[in-house]
């Protein structure tokens, strides 16, 4: 993101300096440009020409709306996402998201279910349901309940009215969280900018390092997606291996749609996009 902004600033700096004959612009008093990314307006560039006799001053105003580059409004056209969950290339379950809107309010209802069995015997069974709430694209709350074999896990997150930081009540962590933290629900690509994520299962805060690995074409069934590939790793190397984050995520380049995820944990796991509406 920083390189993108810098390249624009340098471009306009050289453009202004390259015009030696400013008399060509004696009839201009004001110029304004809109800045678009993927055909969406994200900012402006303005020039004000102030004259005083033989003196000319040009005031340059530049604004880039960073929020326009990354918030839940990117998903305003999505109503439903469904993923198939594979372990060692065997289909074992699903993950579904329902986007429900009411005016400025957005709720994302998520359901995950999978079962690992051998010779007809259930070895591991998992079911989770969650609700994530936003108002005017701003996070308001998150609630989840998870059944992990015979273990019950939960997390409830809300925003403090005093300082807008997060209040976390989870099975693994209870306490405050910085308002810049984001819940680890992979559908929202804003997670790539966060220094830490909150476990959507237990409320544990996971400090992370995010590495951009490049652009890739991903084929799922008969469809090919142009994606951005990111690696998420725990920044705390003292954690036991079972607690470390080590996940690959692919987002579609133009829409930020979550396309695929993969990780190793007692086998090779993949989330693959099945359908979306």
Describe this structure in words.
The protein has 277 residues and is mainly β. The chain has two domains: 2-69, no CATH class; 72-276. The chain is built from two helices and 18 strands. It has helices spanning 2-17, 66-69; strands at residues 30-37, 40-52, 55-64, 80-87, 90-102, 105-118, 121-135, 138-148, 151-159, 166-170, 174-177, 182-183, 196-198, 205-220, 223-234, 246-252, 258-264, 268-276. It has a 15-stranded mixed beta sheet with strand order 11-10-9-8-7-6-5-4-18-17-16-15-14-13-12, with no helix packed on it. The protein has a three-stranded antiparallel beta sheet with strand order 1-2-3. A hairpin with a 2-residue loop joins strand 7 and strand 8. The chain is elongated.
Structure at a glance:
The protein has 277 residues and is mainly beta. Helix content is 7%, strand content 60%.
